[in-house]
Amino acid sequence: xxxxxxxxxxxLWKPFLHTFKKNWPDxxxxxxxxxxxxxxxxxxxxxxxxxxxxxxxxxxxxxxSNIEEDYVILMLEDFFLRSRVDNKKIHYFVNYIQKKKxxxxxxxxxxxxxxxxxxxxxxxxxxxxxxxxVSTQGSIWNKKILINLIKKNETIWEFEENGTKRSKxxxxxxxxxxxxxxxKHHVVERxxxxxxxxxYFSVIRNIKIDFQKRKIMTVxxxxxxxxxxxxxxxFSKLPAIIKKPLKHIAKxxxxxxx
Length: 258
Fold this sequence. Notes:
Layout: E1 2-4, H1 13-23, E2 31-35, E3 45-49, H2 56-65, E4 71-76, H3 87-99, E5 104-106, E6 115-116, E7 123-125, E8 139-142, H4 143-149, H5 156-166, E9 173-176, E10 188-189, E11 192-193, H6 195-204, H7 219-236, H8 240-252
Parallel strand pairs: 1-2, 1-4, 2-3, 5-9
Antiparallel strand pairs: 4-8, 5-8, 6-7, 7-9, 10-11
């Protein structure tokens, strides 16, 4: 079990651990947590301190290179579990990926696969043509393949986009038909809380959250994200000759497109 983070996101560590332990108390895998200089304040997790001045892909590569297990369940620190995780089902798919020598099984159906698997009713294959074939959603990975997909100096978004292209050299990428991981979405986007998740976890779930260190999105930022999300699928299908100038215009007006 490997959780990717950095020291700037240490305000998320306590709420992450709170939801993790409450909803996956029987997780009996060895647990690692990626940091830079700080130690995670929980003895169940081994802190892998990567050092400062590394970007997301370099930290992940360093961490993977310093654990001995051949398969890892990769998660991010802002995936807050909302209900009980079926630990027996996790074990089943961990055993299955090793037995069948698969490269990845995504444990949440986002983005979902498109090709039905004849010999398994609970899985869909993620085809090489699919967008976000590589993503950072909670997944079981063949560690060797994951390391091969990582390139230096990439952000998490670049890893998903470019890693998807690089993944065309490999077969056996799959996705569950029904969610096993029980988070709904990442709770932070570009350093700020989504308003609805800030309210849900702090008020509905009564989890202590440090809103002094990490602010909530403004109305403008929220609308900008929603518009970007709405048009993301349309934009991804445009030819590169059109996408490039649109990205340039978006940057000029302080808007982002993936």
